[in-house]
């Protein structure tokens, strides 16, 4: 067995525009659904035009102005890839304009040019937990079929602009999360029915497929993928009822991959829709559009869970409510740590789809403490990532084609769930607290140098346990 990852394996980190950029109304940007969630995905939906508040995400870590400093730090670690997102409302402030906001386009030109200086490949998510709020207010979010046209117009605009700068694209971040937080995912009220949510998801899946077709025709040398919240479940017990419940729980999120990678709705969803009295409006053209499939599967992985037919207590982890595994330990945020789960998930997805895979989010959120000598001794993060990367290497030895790995939050950022800084993921500490106070100065953590050595040696320094 080789101790090294493949030569062309892409190493890096992943961020989201609404969690790092700040400058939330700068240079013509419009309000987004993320701006209407100033206290995070689980918080109150606040009308920012009505209420005068200051939210931590309004400035975030000010990546909008400080990106040259941050890109240089990523380059020092040896990044060959940085996953980020474009804030849709920077390009089309209301979402339904014909002409884009030039200042927004220019910002991403500068960002991608800065990355190119260091030979860092951008991987760009077109919609990462945000959309122009006007599309919710005026059209009812993704419940309205018109959003397909607005999204593909946006996608075409950025494909034209960045076709020579960006060769890796993703359509929607963690597309399956709309089942759990419909406002963030599809711009629908949290009280929406299952039928309304799945209809909105259908429009999003059609938009994704049309966008994939656009990318294939406009940038033939590019690759475009989807992005799943990898919520793999194991049976809590060997009871057949638990095995079947787990089978159905995995189908709930694999459905999105099945449509995007196989080009049609799977048969099990037809049974699900029938049992739940869900009647979708789906045209013949929709079915034809869905046949355009992704080039690779990308996913986030933080934890596994269990499936059971019983009413067992559930815990909150990465948006989903999950039944905990009695055999696993948890992080201080209650997220269960399961390195072997990432190998299981990689094998599961590769066997199912036979398409290349890309791990675009993985990492440990922790309450880091800055020492007197301005560092963080985050051995717990090093252990977590070491153990997961060892299992990624094992999956590659299993024969799984893995394109790359971008850790979540290589620099501390505002958490999506609660809009706080105290859950830190980065190799780089940012001086900012939950009360939005701090200098925003960047400091290298112990893990910064560890990840640098992992990349330099292509994983040879990883320690199997």
From TrEMBL:
GO terms for cellular component: cytosol. Belongs to the glycosyl hydrolase 1 family. InterPro entries: GH, GH_1_N_CS, Glyco_hydro_1, Glyco_hydro_1_AS. GO terms for biological process: carbohydrate catabolic process. Pfam families: Glyco_hydro_1. GO terms for molecular function: 6-phospho-beta-glucosidase activity. PROSITE patterns: GLYCOSYL_HYDROL_F1_1 (PS00572), GLYCOSYL_HYDROL_F1_2 (PS00653). It is an enzyme of class 3 (hydrolase). This is 6-phospho-beta-glucosidase. Its EC number is 3.2.1.86. Gene3D superfamilies: Glycosidases (3.20.20.80). Keywords: Glycosidase, Hydrolase. The keyword Hydrolase applies. The active site is at residue 361.
């Amino acid at each position: 067995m080789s101790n090294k990852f493949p030569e062309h394996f892409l190493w890096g980190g992943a961020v989201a525009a609404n969690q790092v950029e700040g400058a939330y109304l700068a240079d013509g940007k419009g309000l987004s659904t993320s701006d209407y969630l100033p206290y995070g995905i689980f918080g109150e939906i606040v009308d920012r035009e009505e209420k005068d508040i200051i939210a931590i995400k309004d400035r975030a870590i000010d990546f909008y102005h400080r990106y040259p400093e941050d890109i240089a730090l990523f380059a020092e670690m040896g990044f060959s890839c940085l996953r980020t997102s474009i804030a849709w409302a920077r390009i089309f402030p209301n979402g339904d304009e014909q002409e884009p906001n030039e200042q927004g386009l220019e910002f991403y030109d500068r960002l991608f040019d800065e990355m190119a200086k260091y030979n860092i490949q951008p991987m760009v998510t077109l919609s990462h937990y945000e959309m122009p709020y006007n599309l919710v207010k005026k059209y009812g979010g993704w419940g309205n079929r018109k959003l397909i046209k607005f999204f593909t117009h946006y996608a075409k605009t950025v494909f034209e602009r960045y076709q020579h700068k960006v060769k890796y694209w993703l359509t929607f971040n963690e597309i399956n999360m709309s089942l759990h937080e419909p406002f963030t995912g599809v711009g629908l009220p949290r009280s929406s029915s299952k039928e309304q949510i799945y209809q909105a998801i259908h429009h999003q899946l059609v938009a994704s497929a049309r966008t994939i077709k656009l990318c294939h025709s406009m940038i033939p040398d590019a690759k475009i993928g989807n992005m799943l919240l990898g919520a793999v479940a194991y049976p809590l017990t060997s009871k057949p009822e638990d095995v079947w419940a787990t089978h159905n729980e995995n189908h709930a999120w694999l459905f999105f991959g099945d449509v995007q990678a196989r080009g049609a709705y799977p048969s099990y969803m037809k049974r699900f829709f029938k049992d739940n009295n869900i009647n979708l409006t789906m045209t013949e053209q929709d079915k034809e559009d869905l046949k355009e499939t992704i080039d690779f599967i990308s996913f986030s992985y933080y934890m596994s869970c269990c499936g059971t037919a019983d009413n067992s207590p559930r815990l909150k982890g990465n948006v989903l409510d999950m039944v905990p595994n009695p055999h696993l330990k948890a992080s201080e945020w209650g997220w269960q740590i399961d390195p072997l789960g990432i190998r299981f998930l990689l094998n599961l997805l590769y066997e199912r789809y036979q398409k290349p895979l890309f791990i675009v989010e993985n990492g440990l959120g922790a309450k880091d403490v800055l020492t007197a000598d301005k560092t963080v001794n985050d051995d717990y993060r090093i252990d977590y990532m070491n153990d997961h990367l060892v299992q990624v290497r094992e999956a590659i030895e299993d024969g799984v084609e893995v394109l790359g790995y971008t850790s979540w939050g290589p620099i501390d950022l505002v958490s999506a769930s609660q809009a706080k800084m105290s859950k830190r993921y980065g190799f780089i500490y940012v001086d900012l607290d939950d009360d939005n106070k701090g200098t925003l100065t960047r400091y290298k953590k112990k893990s910064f140098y560890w990840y640098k050595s992992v990349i330099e040696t292509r994983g040879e320094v990883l320690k199997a346990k």
